[in-house]
Design a protein that fits this description.
- By secondary structure, this protein is mostly helical.
- It has three domains: 43 residues, no CATH class; 58 residues; 215 residues, no CATH class.
């Protein structure tokens, strides 16, 4: 404990400086004992606290004990429900509760006495900016606090810009809507999509930059060495090149756990690539549709349409023309499909109905105006 505490309070700036100091300076030549034991000056160093928390391969017994305590909480909940349903008598339930509490008290003591340091192991993997698990990850020598603050500032600013775009640009279009996209006339639907194309595209670009900042923030905090999160997808001349470079962690996971397994089971590589793409399209659909309680398959079909464009038109567009086709698909593709989901979710929300039934409101953001072309709407 003294050794660890002294490492936290050490005044050396890096691990390398500390190692070189103790290797080259004899103990007898060091400062007098009084100056070592009673240092003076400004001693607060947040950087040292961060370095202490992530040293020794993240051996955090307290964190692991807190996570393990969830098992005892779930056990208590199951006992309560069993007693409510009459499966357990009050006497037996009380005995099991006392037994559960006894284990809750004994478990931390047994763990600390038997194993003073426990690596977070898999828990580090859950926080690390990667999807592929392995025993040892590449690590950087130290945490750069200035980089952490830089990434944190980026995330705060980008989130503010995204909120501003939604409130100033997208929400007024939503508020002028009376029907969902599935019940709109084709003319009205096209008009809405044209109005939402630009802000949806800007939101998609900002979301990518937010992901870049977040992944680098987590990597810096956890000293995760592999920072290759994406390639130069903006220079892609084909949609296939874009899909392979826009998210390296997702691409690696799909290749390792899906594509390789399919090929091992004698699936032709071209069919394996198709299955991987369809699986990723289905996952993208689920990630948006499930939280919004609406499954229209717009995202899935939009990605399938991009696949058809890549197959049938990819060979006819090369160089800058191919890059232009990629950006056109990014402008009219999944970002716009995602926005249609949020449009319908907004239409079905009580907030929208509140504004809809108060046309006398003078606010331009809460008025009940219809877009030109709303006369083409079919009654339902």
């Amino acid at each position: 404990m003294r050794k660890r505490f002294s490492s936290v309070c050490s005044s050396s700036s890096t691990e390398e400086d500390s190692a070189s100091l103790y290797d080259t300076v004899p103990i007898s030549a060091a400062d007098p004992p009084d100056e070592q034991e009673h240092p003076h000056g400004y001693l607060i160093d947040v950087k040292k606290v961060l370095e202490h928390l992530i040293e020794d391969n993240c051996n955090w017994p307290s964190v692991n004990l807190i996570l393990a305590a969830n098992m005892f909480a779930v056990t208590a909940l199951l006992l309560e429900r069993s007693q409510e349903k009459g499966v357990l008598s009050p006497v037996n339930a009380r005995r099991l509760h006392l037994t559960n509490l006894g284990f809750l008290l004994l478990f931390p003591a047994a763990v600390i006495v038997h194993e003073p340091t426990i690596s977070t192991g898999l828990y580090y993997f859950l926080l690390a900016p990667t999807l592929c698990y392995q025993r040892d990850f590449p690590r950087t020598p130290k945490v750069r606090v200035n980089k952490l603050l830089h990434r944190l500032l980026e995330m705060v600013i980008v989130v503010q810009i995204m909120v501003a775009i939604v409130q100033q640009w997208i929400e007024p279009i939503f508020q002028r809507s009376e029907y969902s996209f599935s019940t709109m006339d084709i003319t009205m639907r096209v008009e809405h999509l044209v109005g939402l194309a630009a802000p949806a595209h800007f939101l998609w670009l900002l979301f990518f930059f937010l992901s870049h900042s977040y992944l680098n923030f987590c990597a810096e905090l956890l000293r995760f060495g592999d920072r290759h999160f994406y390639g130069d997808w903006w220079n892609a001349t084909t949609l296939i090149a874009f899909w392979k470079n826009w998210s390296i962690p997702c691409q690696r996971w799909c290749h390792r756990h899906v594509y390789t397994r399919l090929v091992e089971h004698n699936v032709p590589p071209s069919q394996a690539e198709l299955l991987v793409f369809l699986m990723s399209a289905a996952l993208c659909e689920c990630m948006i549709a499930l939280p919004l309680h609406s499954c229209r398959l717009w995202i899935f079909f939009m990605m399938v349409a991009e696949l058809l464009v890549a197959v049938f038109l990819g060979n006819h567009f090369e160089g800058n023309y191919g890059n232009g086709l990629v950006w056109l698909c990014l402008l009219l593709g999944p970002p716009l499909a995602v926005t249609t989901y949020f449009h319908d979710h907004y239409i079905s929300s009580p907030h929208h109905h509140h504004h809809h039934h108060h046309p006398s409101s003078s606010s331009p953001l809460t008025s009940d105006r219809r877009l030109p072309g709303s006369v083409f709407l079919k009654p339902h």
